[in-house]
Amino acid sequence: MGVIGFHRFLISAAILFCFGFGIWELLRYADTSAPANLVTAIVFFILSGALGYYLVNLQRFLRGRHD
Predict the structure, then answer these.
(1) Is a pLDDT exceeding 80 seen at residue 56?
(2) How far is residue 34's CA from residue 55's CA, in Å, rounded to a whole number?
(3) Rounded CA gap, 40 and 42, in Å?
(4) pLDDT at position 65, please?
(5) Whether the Cβ atoms of residue 61 and residue 50 lie closer than 8 Å to each other
(6) Does residue 1 sit in helix, strand or coil?
(7) What are the distances in angstroms from CA 48 to CA 6, 54, 64?
(8) In whole angstroms, how far apart are CA 21 and each of 24, 26, 45, 55, 62?
(9) 33 — alpha (psi -120 to 50), left (phi > 0) or beta?
(10) 12: how many CB neighbours lie within 10 A of its CB?
(11) Sequential DSSP letters for 22-48
(12) Distance CA 8, CA 2 (A)
């Protein structure tokens, strides 16, 4: 596995973590009705979406780099 493959693996792990943590916070919000839990869930769902976009378009991001 090359550097790019490992990077894809790490981004995939981060997506799963963010999505899972968002679900966990949403369940905590259902129990406690604390607005902080809802805000945290929304932020982590947005982060998982942004990371998913980055993963899908990784080649395009890599072409734009200047070494």
Answers:
(1) yes
(2) 32
(3) 5
(4) 61
(5) no
(6) coil
(7) 18, 10, 23
(8) 5, 8, 9, 19, 28
(9) left
(10) 13
(11) HHHHHHHHHHH--HHHHHHHHHHHHHH
(12) 10
The rounded distance, in Å, linking the Cα atoms of 56 and 14 is 14
Task: Give the pair of three-digit tokens for residue 17.
Answer: 């973590």
Which tens digits make up the pLDDT trace of 3-14? Answer: 889 999 999 999
Nearest-10 Cα torsion for 8, 11, 15, 16: 70
Encoding tokens for residue 25? 């916070």
What is the amino acid identity at position 32?
T
d(CA 18, CA 21): 5
pTM (two decimals): 0.85
